[in-house]
Specification:
Length: about 110
């Protein structure tokens, strides 16, 4: 998978969003179910929405949702990398769950 390209408008949004977040503030990303917290001036991934029975049912109905837990994880990893790239471009460090490998290591190039 290729590195996502930088969108200057998204980078500006990231800078503004982080500026509005209080220390300890939480940001849940609706499109991917990633949950971040602002810690010591860094955006830290603290949790991920798990695959659920409701997602499986929606996938079986043909809705545009991940078909299985592996597809959800791959989507979350790709979204994390896009988020990290744009926040980094805005001068903000983004880290992942303690004890978890870097999502970039799981995505084939």
């Amino acid at each position: 998978m290729a590195e996502p390209t930088i969108d200057p408008a998204y980078t500006d949004w990231c800078r503004g969003h982080f500026g509005f977040m209080a220390e300890g503030g939480i940001w849940a990303v609706p499109r991917s179910g990633l949950i971040f917290e602002r810690r010591d001036g860094t955006l830290v991934l603290i949790d991920r929405m798990p695959y659920s029975k409701e997602l499986a049912e929606a996938a079986a109905e043909g809705k545009d949702v991940p078909a299985d837990p592996e597809e959800l994880r791959a989507y979350q990893d790709a979204d994390f990398l896009t988020i990290r790239l744009h926040f980094k471009e805005a001068g903000i460090m983004v880290d992942y769950l303690p004890g978890e490998e870097d999502p970039a290591e799981r995505i084939p190039t």
